[in-house]
Amino acid sequence: xxxxxxxxxxxxxxxxxxxxxxxxxxxxxxxxxxxxxxxxxxxxxxxxxxxxxxxxxxxxxxxxxxxxxxxxxxxxxxxxxxxxxxxxxxxxxxxxxxxxxxxxxxxxxxxxxxxxxxxxxxxxxxx
Length: 127
Hints:
The chain is mainly α. 92% of the residues lie in helices and 0% in strands.
């Protein structure tokens, strides 16, 4: 099970980070980022399969490809903003992390506008 591998990697990193943080805070943050990237890279294969499944389902439901692409982009922005904000918080820069989260939310809002317009137009056509 992948979760046990991730748990093991995370637990080992936590031990090293705790030791490093006492003397070398900057290395502790770098190790934390590195472990996060390693976990993400190990998940890419699974994410690719998930994208394939959603694409297949969207095709069967006759959802426009642009909408599905927007959903994937929104998810990507959310995860990148969250991951980056957590790195900032780990480095003691909470305010910077909050600003990154806000930027991610605003970007997501702008990305969702075309989908929202299409939904409103569809609703208006019903009346």
